[in-house]
Amino acid sequence: MIWQLDLVILTLVVVTAIGAISIKDLLGCAILFSAYSFMMCLLWAIMGAVDVAFTEASVGAGVSTVFFVAAVFRTTRRTKD
Amino acid sequence: MKLIALIIVILSGSILLYATVDFPEWADPASPAHMHVSPHYIEKTMEETSVPNIVTAVLADYRGFDTMFETAVIFAAGVVCFILLRTFKKEETKERLYRHTLTDITIRLKDDEKIPSVLDEFERIDTQWTPYDLVIKTVCRILIPFIQLFALYVIAHGHHSPGGGFQGGVILGASVILLAISQNLRIALVYMREKVHALLCPIGVLIYAGTGALCLLLGLNFLDYSALASVLYVDPVTARSHGILLVEIGVGVAVMATMIWIYNNVSSSGKYDEGL
Description:
The complex is a heterodimer.
Chain A: H1 3-22, H2 26-46, H3 50-74
Helix pairs in contact in A: 1-2, 2-3
Chain B: H1 2-19, H2 32-35, H3 37-49, H4 54-62, H5 64-85, E1 95-100, E2 106-110, E3 122-125, H6 134-156, H7 165-182, H8 185-191, H9 194-217, H10 229-232, H11 236-267
Antiparallel strand pairs in B: 1-2, 1-3
């Protein structure tokens, strides 16, 4: 485990998480959430849980983003609060 | 109201952070989880199931009951999306757009008017149609078979490398979703009709539960794959390895069908007509 790499990824996890809950644009939120999932996937991979990382990459960063984008496409793009 | 919510979140968050102090150190060999079951899995998995990837063996064999209900949960998610979103009612003024592919002229048809099926130079388009990008269309068309091949490899090779039914199923479903995104929903529905993916979803769960029930019929415990030895004509250890593969196929089929099912329902808001 390289601590510099760990630190960079952990910072990005926090940044993307705060960005995802504070952004007004829901499509951007979906993309940020996907970035968050991908950073989590990297973290799992660093910690040696390759199976979990694989699941996170395919489900979290892949398919769930598509579901969010589809839901945004069918509803509104901007949030009220 | 926002302030109260913020205070509650910060309070519960700090309590959770405080509780993590009690956790054992990361990868601490003296922690309870690493004292009793882990050594057994690490030392005995290879001789008991002949599966090199311990995670797969634990997921599908030692903790097979857990995974069966995980599959059932995914199936339930698909069914819930179907029940909440799918609409069968025809709208009153239903308009469809058709594009003449040679001249780019678009015509609009109402209700039950139809274009004679002899004319195949007309193609149905979405109301929010934009001209297809040739690059995207071609690249996706080339990529999809490779994605599907990789998904099958992930399912079949789950014994030896990371991966298994869940990941392979998601990738397999994603390939069909990619087709629906790069072309349109109707073309994806030609390859994977609604009845097919709605049926494959419970069939996947049934394959899993059926493997378990077969073990029960052959005289051993539910999901104890060594019972399959007499059916597959192999020794009990190899039978456990093959049983895991059977179960992974069930999981893969269920997950693939559910992903497609959810996507189709969400992107077309239940009408299965015009998608993303």
